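Lab notebook: predicted structure, single chain.

Context: the supervisor wants predicted structures on file for every construct in the current expression panel, including those that have not yet been purified. This is the next one on the list. No modifications to the sequence; it matches the entry in the shared construct table.
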Amino acid sequence: MDPSQVRVLPKLDTSAGHTFIQPSKRINEGQDVSEFLSSRAYIDIMTFLLQLNRSLFPTRLPDGRVQTWPLNCEAVEYSAPVRQLQQLLSKLEAIFEEAPPDTGPRRFGNISFRRWYEIVESRATSLLEECLSSELLQTPSSEPNGPTAEVELLAYFLGSWGSPQRLDYGTGHELSFLAFLAGIWKLHGFPQNSPGVEERAIVLGVIQPYLELVRTIIKRYTLEPAGSHGVWGLDDHSFIPYIFGAAQLAPALSESDPVPEEGSLPDAPAPGGVAKANVVQRERQDNLYFSAIGFIYDVKRGPFWEHSPMLYDISGIQAGWAKINKGMIKMYNAEVLSKFPVVQHFPFGSLFSWERDLNAVVPAATTRTTATPRRTDENTQSAPQPAGPGTRAPWANTKAPAPSASIPRGVPLALSGTSRLPPGPMAPTQAPWANPQPPSGGSTAGDSASGHVPTKAPWAK
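Prediction complete. Output recorded below exactly as produced.
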């Protein structure tokens, strides 16, 4: 999907009849990810994401002025459904009082999270009925005595808060909340407004408060990162705030303009500000990207480049926040929607259908879509999957340089001495927007006699 060609997520025509079904697991092995990437569910998720993304770009008004959309923007009006969803988040936060953190010894997540989740699960139906319209929840199925829309929304709502079994939270849970909101959209749960108006209210009025609530849950119950890349991942827990936050700082556009691919607002903070605590503290109040960075500062210690090397590398992009936004969308597709460990728990019903999209291009199988082998006998070792093109980890040089004590600004991590090869299926692919060609004019540090050319950071020109 081209981010500049954004279409609107279509809403259900319930007058034509629609059959709701209980969402179920369909991604059981790595090969199923390719089917997911050809499904109607995938198209709908990406459509909704790009729709929200465009709404966060500053708006060029007819008189030439530019309207930006920071957090707590007074120019954004919250509709009744948005305020009801805010009330829903507040009710979830209030349940904290009924599940105080356990004070006993533990190595990983706090077991009291299970108690909080059990309460939420037991009250989920009443919580949704209190905060969403009955017409939406009870949208009937055309099949006699079939389930209503509430059954499908409940599955995505309950999948949004982390795993009570594993005591973790990650981008798969974030994806579930995005699907929850997209399901409400498809069911006509948000009012019809001018393009971008309701989408902005959803991001600033619902998604950002959701992210803040999740961060509180993570800290309160010390939840582990789910399926994390470790130090080589973008973020331990979230991804979408980096997409939307980059859009907030990108150049302004009018309604008919394509989404810009380079540049920034004239007064936007430099991307390198993420490595400066004072800049992060100042900007986190207004921007989703810096708000997410601020949470990293809250929970991690040490040099930023050391605990968040990918975000540090991205902070060196010179082409502006629009370039970062475009790259983040490609990376979300590659590192979230195309990763088996992330999407394996996503359930499919009628709102997000497993059926193949008629216009879908069947993706070629690569290591990112075959992250786990097909099922084999327990005692049979499967053959390793061949690496597809463009899936090399950025640090995977044939001859790694000796470790160094520090990384000066401007040295890509792929060429620095900090290589810590992550095992298993979550090894990140090469940055999707990276230029695979080496710069002209001689060899690069790390070249070998065999002609190996090290991969480059996404912003390397």
